[in-house]
């Protein structure tokens, strides 16, 4: 990842803080003018967005630090901690919503000033939708799990807000006040599901999950096309650490090949992989012929063992 990428990610994370505060303020204002527990649940979820935005900004800044003696592979995984914490906060928000909604189900009341409240909540939803699109797109482009998790969370918030608006319109139209707290419980269930997805994706990253299959195939193709002169490549392993990609494999060369010639092949392969994944960390173990191949093999054009 380049310095420009890091600055872009950090800048987006920073702006997420005032935006999330503004959206939370709008949603809590919508609850204040209506008394709707469903709108309160929507506002409480947005309060999680504020905390998550602050954590994401702090963790992204830490993850951008260069490698040092204590962290020779860099600090990239810090972003996963941000995403896990956000997932936990989402789950806690859902439980708080259920706690608020259950008493309201026992004694439901009709809304006050519903038109104004729903209009305010709709405006907050539009802001969230635009911001979620920006974060998800940037998170994918810059391989930032923290931005992606934040964007996915905000997108679930948008879906929640849409559901709340539709449900409250039904409550107003039918006069069934119980639809308000009932909808809040349904919203909480959706939030719990979204929180679990954020946590599970982040745990995959902390557990050194391999790159997606299509990206691994691109890496294999880069190796195969540039390993001429070697006798084969095997034991290919990949892993992700936030925006960073690490590639490790063994390359077999003729026993009599000079070290310099083997090094030239390695340089050629590394350059090709970094065309596919700029900034990838690559480790190549050079072996003399006769070593038994194991692990994931890469078929190299023209390579053959004597």
UniProtKB/TrEMBL annotation:
Chain segments annotated as transmembrane: 12-34, 46-64, 80-99, 111-134, 154-176
Protein's organism: Rhizobium meliloti (Ensifer meliloti)
The Cation efflux protein transmembrane domain, residue ranges: 19-207
Molecular functions (GO terms): cadmium ion transmembrane transporter activity; ferrous iron transmembrane transporter activity; zinc efflux antiporter activity
Keyword Protein transport: no
Taxonomy of the source species: Bacteria, Pseudomonadati, Pseudomonadota, Alphaproteobacteria, Hyphomicrobiales
Primary location recorded for the protein, binned into one broad class: membrane
Example GO biological process: intracellular zinc ion homeostasis
SUPFAM superfamilies linked: Cation efflux protein cytoplasmic domain-like, Cation efflux protein transmembrane domain-like
Membrane topology value: Multi-pass membrane protein
Protein name: Protein p34
Keyword Amino-acid biosynthesis among record annotations: no
Record's GO cellular component terms: plasma membrane
Residues in Cation efflux protein cytoplasmic domain copies: 212-289
Keyword annotations of the record: Cell membrane, Membrane, Transmembrane, Transmembrane helix, Transport
InterPro entries per record: Cation_efflux (IPR002524), Cation_efflux_CTD (IPR027470), Cation_efflux_CTD_sf (IPR036837), Cation_efflux_TM (IPR058533), Cation_efflux_TMD_sf (IPR027469), CDF_Transporter (IPR050291)
Localisation per UniProt entry: Cell membrane
Family the entry assigns: Belongs to the cation diffusion facilitator (CDF) transporter (TC 2.A.4) family.
């Amino acid at each position: 990842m380049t310095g420009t990428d890091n600055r872009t990610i950090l800048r987006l994370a920073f702006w997420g803080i005032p935006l999330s505060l503004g959206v939370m303020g709008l949603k809590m204002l919508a609850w204040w003018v209506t008394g709707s527990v469903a709108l309160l649940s929507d506002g409480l979820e947005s309060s999680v967005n504020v905390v998550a935005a602050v954590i994401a900004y702090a963790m992204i800044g830490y993850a951008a630090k260069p490698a040092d003696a204590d962290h020779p592979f860099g600090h990239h995984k810090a972003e996963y901690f941000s995403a896990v914490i956000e997932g936990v906060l989402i789950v806690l928000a859902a439980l708080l919503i259920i706690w608020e909604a259950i008493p309201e189900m026992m004694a439901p009341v009709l809304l006050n000033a519903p038109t104004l409240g729903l209009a305010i909540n709709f405006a907050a939803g539009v802001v969230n939708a635009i911001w979620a699109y920006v974060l998800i797109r940037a998170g994918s482009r810059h391989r930032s799990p923290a931005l992606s998790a934040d964007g996915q969370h905000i997108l679930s918030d948008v879906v929640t807000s849409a559901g709340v608006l539709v449900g409250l319109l039904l409550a107003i139209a039918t006069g069934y006040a119980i639809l308000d707290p009932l909808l809040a419980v349904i919203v909480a269930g959706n939030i719990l599901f979204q929180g679990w997805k954020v946590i599970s994706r982040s745990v995959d990253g902390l557990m050194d999950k391999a790159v997606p299959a299509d990206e691994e195939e691109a890496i294999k193709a880069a190796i195969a096309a540039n390993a001429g002169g070697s006798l084969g490549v095997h034991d290919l392993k990949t892993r992700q650490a936030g925006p960073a990609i690490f590639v490790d494999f063994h390359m077999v060369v003729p026993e009599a090949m000079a070290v310099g010639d083997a090094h030239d092949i390695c340089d050629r392969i590394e350059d090709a992989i970094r065309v596919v994944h700029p900034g990838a960390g690559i480790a190549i173990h050079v072996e003399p012929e006769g070593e038994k191949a194991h692990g994931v093999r890469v078929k190299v054009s023209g390579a053959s063992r004597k």
